[in-house]
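Operator note (shift B, R.M.): manual run for Glutamate receptor requested after the automated queue skipped it. Running by hand, logging everything below so the morning shift can see what happened. Input copied straight from the record, untouched. If output looks odd, do not overwrite the archive copy; leave it for review.
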Amino acid sequence: MSSSSKHEIPVGVILDMKSLFGQMVHSSILMAISDFYFLNDEYKTRLVLHTRDSKGDTLQAISVASDLLENLKVQAIIGPESLLEAKFLSILGNKTKVPVLSLIASSSFNSNQHCYLLQMPQDETIQWKGLAALTESFKWTDVILIHEDSEFGRESIPYMIDSFLEKKIHISYKSAISSLATDDQIVDELRKLSDLQENVVFIHCSHYLAFRILVYAKRVGLMDQGYAWIVTDKTMNFFDPMELDEEVVESFQGVLGLKYLIPSSNQLNNFTKRWRKETLLSNPNIFSLLAYDAIFALGMAVERVESRPFKDGNSIDAMDLTNIQESSKSGMMLLKELLNVRFKGLSGEFHLLNRKSVAKPLEIVNVFGKGEKRVGFWTEDDGITMYIKSKLNHRNKSSINGLASIIWPGGSMIHPTRRLKMQTSKTLRIGVPMLVGFEEFLTVEHNPQTNATIAKGFCVDVFDAAVKALSYEVPYEFVPFVYNKTLNSEAYNQLIHEVYLQKYDAVVGDTTITANRSLYVDFTIPYTELGVGTVIKDDQNSRKLWWFLEPLDTYMWVVTTLSFFIIAATIWFLEHHHQDSAFRGPWHGVVGPLLWFSFSTLTFSQRAKLSSNLSRLLVIVWLFIVLVMITCYNAALSSMLTIQQIRLTQKGIDIGYHAGSFVEGVIVNNSNFKDPSLLPYTSLAEYKSALEGGRKKGGVVAIMDELPYIKLFLAKYGTAYRLVSYEPSTNGFGFVFPKGSQLASNISREISKLREEGELLKLEKKWFKRDSSYLPEDSQEIDAVMGDSTILANRSEYVDFTATYTEVGVGTLVKMNKNDMWFFVKPLEKMLWISIGVLALLTCLIIWVIESLSHGAIQPIGATFWVILMTFFLAQRETLSSKVSKFVLFVWLLFMLILISSYTATLSSILTVEQFETASKGGTLGFHGGSFEAGLAGVTVSNLHFEDHHRKPFYSYEDYAEALTKGGKDGGANAIIDEIPYIKMFLCKYSTDYAMISSEPSTSGFAFAFRKGSRLAKDMSRQIAKIREDGSLRILERKWFQKESVSSPADQNPNKPKALTFGSFKGLFIICGSVSAFGLLLSVLGAILPQLLLIFILVMPPFLIEACFDLFDPINKFYSRFI
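Run finished. Output pasted below as returned.
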């Protein structure tokens, strides 16, 4: 077929013809056109290239693209080599329906927004995952990133950071360098790296800039032994030792790089030979091969489109930019065919998925000598391997981390680890105070033979755990601090001063963070709970004289007492007109028996026989009410005896405190006690002795101390003592380091991480064993952050936090169960209530039939029904004549005994345990949406022990209230977990309906954030500590949180039983009142029935009287018999 009969398809090519990238790609495209039609001469179509030079300018690229679309009617465009060019050409492609085949990769392109942009390379996120996996394999957790200060760098770096964070790898320092930077600017930026601890450096920028950076890094000593340098494919794809200067190649020695794997093939070998001859370059890179394959794919696609029947006018004869959307009517079909093309090309399998090349293995190379050595691969399925999957069975057994041996900068064979940019050549001298009376915190033993000091305890365990978590080694030894006098706050101040004088490098112990001490040393963040707690003796014999009245409130007692009198009066009214009633006669002779009968129902021992069925019905209902009230009373009293309510008098009492500590001043400034007498004690044993003796025997009513000491005391003596309140008026314990020490911030970060992961809680349980007691429930554009910023380990990588100004930890918020007027039916499910009623009726009928057969006549069914109903209260008095009916009744009584016992036990359990409904298992757990989102999910859940929960975010206090009101079953939540400051503010608004039922110190509280190294962070921390100590912080809390009870664990204790109120029995009283009113109504009607009949006879016409008597007669018989 002659060339003149071929259908020519115009294709635009836009490249910077002076760049290495443009020259290599253009050469590859020309070779691809030649090869494709040599192999496919029979094709009816021919791609005709129209090449334009962008000259490296985005505006020029847009201009020539518009010219190609408007004047040459191109059906496709190949070659934008910058991100900005690709974006603008994508917009033009979407508008004109012309596919744009891009040779650059970017994670920021959305296939839905850039429908006609096809990326020949695979998505950049594949490379980021490979780099993160490579970093993780060497156990590097902190790295440095150097990237190009350009739009491409700014848009791609966030995706890289996300991939690293998934592997818990922190980019602790980022350096943005412009491609136009001078040599001095590059050197100044590189010198900053020498002052950092991190020595693993990633470079992601153009190859021109990367070559310059590595050359100057070599000159300033950053390519020596101990460093690791990793470059991305943007650099490695252009690294050709045969084409580069010797200095550039020398600076690459020991560098690791990632590039896309190019599978070997005969086709590739033949192409490479021709390439070297025609271009005089050594080897084609991945971009050349992708461009080659793009031409093949485009040629196949246009041929498939051409082979389909089309309407005339596929090409546009005239066009301008105002009508640019008409430039390619066949563009949609061409795009579809391009997405369907699949073949094996020079770069590997060609297949576009989501408009991007499918994921391919990454090749890990190590530059050494005059070339590069492949040391392994990375794939999404297999991770880091030395060989690709088909060759895994030949894996080298001596490989480390799935890689072959690597030569690092400086010729080292050992992979670099993080360095400590401090004086770590010497062993750090850690001062430890010689504690007396609180050995669980710190015990120091000195071995005179080895002259070694051995320290153990909670403080030492936390310090060891934090140091071991560092990515570098810190050698240290413990040095005992001996004070001539009693170890007190003055001694601790002296120890702090010793650190200031550089006699010690750090202090480990129960060292409280104070404002004054922060002037001389740096503290880590606190590793204990903040504040001071109050503990008292849980005296079983200290109940009030009338303690047994507490299960019911005053109003309930009054209403109940009045009810007995009302019941007595109602029974008299219903019974006194019966001839055989026990309540006939003068009032002074009836009052006593009536009251006796009424009040004897409390013990179900009433004896008087009732004649009226109405009075029997009333008594049955009343007995049921009495049964429920007695059962609830027993349950509430049992709950109160199980969970003691402890009330501490706050006026004129003796308060013990930790002798030698500064807690004495804190008690005066922050506690609610009025005019207390303060007595000092020095050990846990003295605390116990003072509380045992009490005020009368020279002891104290309560002990106040910092929460860590209180927790330790309760761990030893928790069964006899109880924490009743606490105030966040101190700053907790922290480790001490010299001013400006990098270790202080590093250890702080590890402490925060230990708290988030729950390890700190495990150490507390190891030393404090809390099971026996219940503890408190309850970028450079910005210089600082003020707000509800939670201290997190990963955030500490980038900023310095002040000391916390809120309580640490998270709490669980639930809706309080209000008194339900029908709560007494909850112990038994609906089906059981129905079954009991049916069984009672059935038993009644059976006994009635048996008794009727026994007497030879039908017995009154009302009496039999009375017998069965009285068994509900185990108070039946009527006798049965048949032995069979007695046996049936005996079985029924056994059933009722078990049922009533089970009902009482279940109701007691409900009142004791289920006063609050939480989502501890299988419920919906709400959390603060946006507050370290999965954090709360990972942090809080791992520390608060929730199981099988469904997490759901909420974003405001109104959302919290609505969710808890709905509950988990109706689309809300069973409980809300949030940080304590948020919960306190919520309770300030809705405290009458909700409560905090538990808290855990699993977060590090709120703090202000400042730039790394900012002096303000330390100064602000000192002032925060000061306002906490002098009580000002508590005043501010009261100002904004309003209700002091919000933070009081004594008031918010979910285990504190509630007195039963009238509302709890409102339903029963309604039933009883209704029955009484109904009985009175029937009795009144019965009394006036004769008068009504007489009036009826006198008024009605004679012919109606006889007919109406037929109606009144059965009514009168029914009334006489049953009423």
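Quick read of the result: The domain at 3-121+275-357 is CATH 3.40.50.2300 (Rossmann fold). The radius of gyration is 43 Å.
Leaving this for review. - R.M.
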